[in-house]
Every structure is written in structure tokens, then in C-alpha cells.
Write a structure and sequence with these properties.
The chain has 227 residues and is mostly helical. The protein is built from eight helices and two strands. Helix 2 crosses helix 8. The longest helix is centred in the first third of the chain and has 24 residues.
Length: 227
């Protein structure tokens, strides 16, 4: 009999939807122009914090949140692509989906970090603008102003993959990322989870928030004055 088991922990699910909302917010505030630059920067700090949280959670989190459980290799990708069409869906991330996870984390991390060094020449500057010199600022500005196109492409690819699995393979990916559970005869107590490690997640979230606050508020270097 098909049974419903917990696969995605609550912290991971909250991260997923918060991450999506933050990226959308960053895009909207950028499109709205300079009146929303401060909010855009604050959302960038949130994005940075979310990535840091996910990296730590990928090390100490629950079974299917840990990077070690889904790190993609050529052999795992080849084996996944060779599976028959009627094979049961992956319990956690499949090898192709794991590529998207790492790509999105890397892209958004680069986007958020580069934003710390960007100046809009009118209203606002990132907290580390001019901290490492003009050459670094130019590189960071180039990254920040061009990388988001790749993030959009990755998002489009992700949505297309979700739709393919929904309508092509009849595997729903969205509902489990809401309630955390998957169903199937291949699920058992050994390959699913019974706890979301909420206390550990709260500790990590608090430490991450404190680090980001230190990074963008307390540790900001004093701007050099030239006369």
C-alpha cells in the first residue's frame, strides 16, 4: 500500500519559498527604479542570509537536505538518465535537480556578494563599495549587472522541469515542497525523516542573521575621505 512519509523538512521548505519570494522581490525592486533601491539592497542581504543558511543546512540538516545525499556526479546522472520510464521518482533531489540546486545557490551568492560592492552613482552604495579599490568595484559591478540574466534563465529552466515532471512524468513536485510529504511503496522509515530538526534550524537561522547584520552593519569599513 502506498504510504505518505515526510521527506522535506520544514526549514528546507521555508527556505525554498522564502528564497523564491526574495529573488522575485529583488527583481521587482530593481525594475521599479531608484525609489526602491534601499529595499532592493535589504532584500539582497536577506538573499545572502538565505544562501548561507542553506549551505549550513546542507551540511547538518536532515537526510534529503544534506548535500552529501544528492551531490551530482557523472555516474549518478548517467544512471538516472538510464532509468526506465516507470521507475519510481527520486525520494529527495534527483541528480538533474541537484545540479539546479547548486547552480542557483552559486548564482545568487555571487549576485548578493557582488551587490555589496556596487554603487549606483546617484543614491546608494553597497556597504563595501570602495573597500577593496576601484578595480574590484568594477568587477563586482559587472557581475551584479549581468549575472541576474543567468538567474532568470535558471529559474525558467527550473519551472520548465517542474512542469515536465508534472505533466510528462505525472510526478508532482510542488505539493511535497509545501507539506513535506511524498507517497509511494518505495518509501520507508529508512529513506525518509521523522523530524525537521527545528531547534537546530532556529539556532542556525539566528546565527546567520547575526552574521549578516555584522557583515553589512557592524563591520562596514569607514569610507576614505579625499581632499
Amino acid at each position: 500500500m502506498s504510504q505518505s512519509k515526510l521527506v522535506w523538512d520544514l526549514p528546507l521548505r521555508l527556505f525554498h519559498w522564502s528564497f523564491a519570494a526574495t529573488i522575485i522581490g529583488c527583481w521587482i525592486t530593481n525594475e521599479l527604479g531608484n525609489d526602491y533601491i534601499d529595499l532592493h539592497m535589504q532584500l539582497g542581504y536577506v538573499a545572502l542570509g538565505l544562501v548561507i543558511f542553506r549551505v549550513i543546512w546542507g551540511i547538518v540538516g536532515t537526510k534529503h537536505a544534506r548535500f552529501a545525499s544528492f551531490f551530482p556526479t557523472p555516474n549518478s546522472i548517467k544512471a538516472y538518465l538510464s532509468l526506465p520510464k516507470d521507475a519510481p521518482p527520486a525520494i529527495g533531489h534527483n541528480p538533474l535537480g541537484s545540479l539546479m540546486v547548486f547552480a542557483m545557490l552559486a548564482l545568487v551568492l555571487a549576485q548578493a556578494v557582488s551587490g555589496l560592492f556596487v554603487d549606483d552613482d546617484v543614491f546608494s552604495s553597497g556597504p563595501y563599495y570602495n573597500a577593496l579599490g576601484g578595480d574590484v568595484d568594477k568587477v563586482m559591478a559587472f557581475i551584479h549587472h549581468n549575472l541576474f540574466d543567468f538567474i532568470i534563465a535558471a529559474i525558467a529552466l527550473h519551472i520548465a522541469a517542474v512542469l515536465f515532471y508534472q505533466f510528462g512524468k505525472k510526478h508532482s513536485l510542488v505539493p511535497p515542497m509545501i507539506h513535506g510529504k511524498k507517497s509511494g511503496e518505495h518509501l520507508n522509515d529508512d529513506n525518509t525523516i521523522i523530524s525537521s530538526k527545528l531547534i537546530l534550524a532556529l539556532i542556525i537561522a539566528a546565527a546567520t542573521a547575526a552574521f549578516v547584520y555584522w557583515l553589512v552593519v557592524l563591520n562596514v569599513p569607514e569610507p576614505e575621505m579625499y581632499y
